[in-house]
Amino acid sequence: RFPIDGISYEVYNEDLCSTCEDVFVSGWARVAGEGVVGLARKDAERGARAVLQYLDTLTAKSNNRVQDVLDNLARSGNPIVDLSGLQKLWAVEEKIAAEKGLPEFKFDSKEAMLRVIEET
């Protein structure tokens, strides 16, 4: 229902001949044999866009648990990247790709990506 670049990220079970509604997979979960970080990341980003399309179809509900989840993430000590951070990263990657004459450019480490997000 929410294809990105012609690819569906919703789970489909051939044995049952049915779609598992509201369940999405991407990256290595979708194509385990790929094994290439850049391809898995690109696939994961597309899968995230499919989930965002799906979420746009839902009615928003007020839920205090969302804030609880965000608070727990903040306490984890791990970096948190929101959509605006991803958009900054994508813009820089597109700029670098254009400057180098490449169809696309992706950073090769989490640290490099986080640096770009924090600097812009």
Can you list the strand order of the major beta sheet?
1-2
Mean pLDDT rating: 82
Order of helices and strands: EEHHHH
Q: List low-confidence stretches.
A: none
The total of helices stands at: 4
Radius of gyration: 17 Å
Q: Which structural class should the secondary elements be placed in? A: mainly alpha
Distance between the termini: 35 Å
- Strand count: 2
- Compute the number of structural domains: 2
Taken from the alpha-carbon principal axes, the silhouette is globular
Helical residue percent band: 40-55%
Regarding quaternary structure, how should these chains be classified? single chain
Taken as a percent bin, the fraction of beta residues is 5-15%
For the largest beta-sheet, the strand count, sense and barrel status come to: 2 strands, antiparallel
Explained architecture:
With 120 residues, the chain is mainly alpha-helical. It has two domains: 1-59, no CATH class; 78-120, no CATH class. It is 50% helix and 9% strand. The chain is built from four helices and two strands. It has helices at 37-56, 64-75, 83-100, 110-119, and strands spanning 10-13, 18-24. The chain has a two-stranded antiparallel ribbon with strand order 1-2. Strand 1 and strand 2 (18-24) form a beta hairpin. Helix 3 packs across helix 4 (110-119). The radius of gyration is 17 Å and the shape is globular. It starts with 9 loop residues before the first strand and ends with a helix. The mean pLDDT is 82.
